[in-house]
UniProtKB/TrEMBL annotation:
GO cellular component: cytoplasm; nucleus
PANTHER family from the UniProt entry: CALMODULIN-LYSINE N-METHYLTRANSFERASE
Keyword Transferase (UniProt): yes
Main location: cytoplasm
Protein name from the UniProt record: Calmodulin-lysine N-methyltransferase
GO-annotated biological processes: methylation
Pfam families: Methyltransf_16 (PF10294)
Enzyme class, spelled out: transferase
Subcellular location: Cytoplasm; Nucleus
Length: 217
């Protein structure tokens, strides 16, 4: 059955699926496009590829690691927090478009996705920037970040807000390995704040063991 592309009030979610459908089909350039549909697709919000540039950053070489042990698929980013006397924050993450079969095997084994592995999502930048605008909201508090990805926001909170404890969690064990690596790389700048990584699946019973123990989620 043909899809009616002329519907004026299609939901954004439906349009995003249309973006994915178009990418997978890879239609020949000679195939005519629906101009109205193209305009509607352009109106749908998408991930900003380079984030919103709320926190200045640049790519650096390996930090404190032997070059042979630093995977070619990884990159290290140096963030300069826009705060007085703020130390630099180093974040190791997977290069975009570097996915291998092992990633999918892990996803299948643990019944998870790899959204936290494929890129540094702009929402992390926004959350980290928000935290820097509200330092007092985290001071002396126990904080947990859910679905943290590479842990930028959690590390910013740990480094800049004088929180008593920060737990940076994700459901993907590969991502949590990166989080722990980033905690270790920035340990000298975390002061007295206790920081740890955690594998956390929201639908598992273990969640009940930590409920009620955090001030900020």
């Amino acid at each position: 059955m043909d899809t009616d592309h002329s519907q004026p009030n299609r939901k954004p979610s439906s349009l995003r699926w249309q973006i994915l459908r178009r990418a997978l089909r890879r239609r020949p350039s000679s195939e005519p496009e629906n101009l109205c549909e193209e305009i509607r697709l352009d109106e749908v919000s998408r991930r900003a590829r380079n984030g919103f540039n709320l926190i200045p950053w640049h790519v650096v070489n390996e930090v404190g690691e032997d070059s042979d042990s630093f995977p070619k698929r990884d990159a290290c980013f140096c963030y300069t927090l826009p705060l007085p006397n703020a130390p630099k924050l180093f974040l190791r993450q997977r290069c975009e478009d570097c996915v291998d079969l092992d990633d999918f095997e892990v996803c299948n084994r643990y019944d998870i996705d790899n959204t936290g592995l494929v890129c540094q999502w702009p929402s992390e930048d926004v959350l980290a920037y928000y935290a820097m605008l509200h330092l007092g909201s985290f001071r002396s508090k126990r904080v947990i970040e859910l679905g943290s990805g590479y842990g930028l926001a959690g590390l910013v909170i740990a480094m800049a807000t004088e929180a008593s404890e920060v737990v940076i969690s994700d459901g993907n064990p590969q991502v949590v390995d990166y989080i722990q690596c980033n905690i270790d790389a920035n340990s000298a700048s975390l002061g007295s704040t206790k920081v740890k990584s955690m594998i956390l699946h929201w639908d598992q019973y273990e969640v009940s063991d930590i409920s009620g123990t955090f001030d900020v989620i």
